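Good morning N.,

You mentioned wanting to compare the apo and holo forms, so I went ahead and generated the holo version with phenylalanine. This is what I fed in:
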Amino acid sequence: MSTQSLKQELTALILNAKDLASLDEARVAALGKKGRITDLMKSLGTMDAESRKTFGAEVNILKDDIATLIAQQEDALKRQEMDARLSRETIDISLPPRNVKKGSIHPISQTMEELITIFADMGFTVAEGPDIEDDFHNFTALNFPEGHPAREMHDTFYFPSGHLLRTHTSTVQVRTMMTQKPPIRIICMGRTYRSDYDMTHTPMFHQMEGLVIDDHTTMSHLKACLMDFVRSFFNIADLNVRFRPSFFPFTEPSAEMDIGCSRKNGELKLGVGDDWLEILGCGMVHPNVLKNCGIDPDQYQGFAFGMGIERIAMLKYGIPDLRTFFESDTRWLSHYGFDPLNRPNRAIKIS
Ligand code: PHE
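and this is what came out, ligand included:
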C-alpha cells in the first residue's frame, strides 16, 4: 500500500474520531507498537539501501503528518468537550428568585427595629436588663410602698427564692440610673410577664421603656418627644395626641397618652375622626425614684414612658388578636411577617 493511500485511510480514521477514546484507538492503530506506520518502519529493515532512503523519508513525513493531525484533533475534541460543558453548566443569574419558602421577620422583631431606628435618631441608646428580677428593681426602687395595691395589680410571677419575672421594663430605669450619670437618654425593650390570659393579655408580652434624665427636663420635652415618636412610628404627620392625668408610683405627674382615631362602623382608623385610643403611660420621674437610684432630684429631673410593643404593632399592622403573636403558626407568620431584606426605616422626617 502506498503511503499516500495509508495517509488517506488514517486521516479519515482520525477525523472520524468523535471523542478522545476513539481518537486514542486511531492513534494506536497508526503509531502504536503494532500500528500501521510502525509496521512500515519495521519493513524498512528488509529493503535495500536506496529504496530504504526514499521510502524511509516518505514514512517519516507520514509519521509526522499523522502525529500532527492527531494532536490537532485532540485539541479540537477537548475544546468541543469544554464548550459543551460550559453551555451545560451555565447559570442564568438573571433568573427571578425561585418560589422557595423563606423565613420572615416576626412583627415583634420588626416593630422593635422600627422603635430603635426612630429613637436612635433622637439620640437614645438601647439599654438592657434581666427578665428575672428582684423586688427592689421591680417595685421598691420604683416607689411602690410595701403592701401598696399597685403591687397586686401587676399579677406577678414569683420564684420560691423571692425573685420574680419582671412585670414591666421600668426595672431598667432603675438599673440604668444606678450605673450611669446624667445626662441619660435610653430606651429598653424586652419581655415582661404577668399572670393574665385573655383576648388582650398574654402571660408574656413585650414592653418598651424610655428614660431621659438631664438638668433641665420638663413635661414639654416629654410631650414633644412622644408626639414626634407616634407621628413617626404610625407614619401620620398630623396625628393628634392627648395627655390624660394618670397614676404610676414612679412618675409624678403621670399621664396616659392617647392618639386620635375614628371607630366608625366598627373600623379603627388612626389619625382621623374625633375618638381617642390609649397608647402609652408616661410621666416625670418621681423624686423618690431618683433618690433611690442615687441621683440628686434637686439637680436632675427627667421623664419616662412605657408601652406594650404587641399593642402598637397590632395597631400599626392591623393584627386583630394578641394571642396569635405567640402561636408560632407559620401561615400567620408568612402573612404578617416581614421580608428579612427590607430594613425598617422612617417615612416621616421630623426635625
Ligand atoms: N411601667 C408602666 C406599666 O407597665 C408604664 C410606664 C413606664 C409608665 C414609664 C410611666 C413611665 O404600665
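The chain has a mean pLDDT of 92.

Happy to go through it together on a call whenever suits you.

Best,
F.
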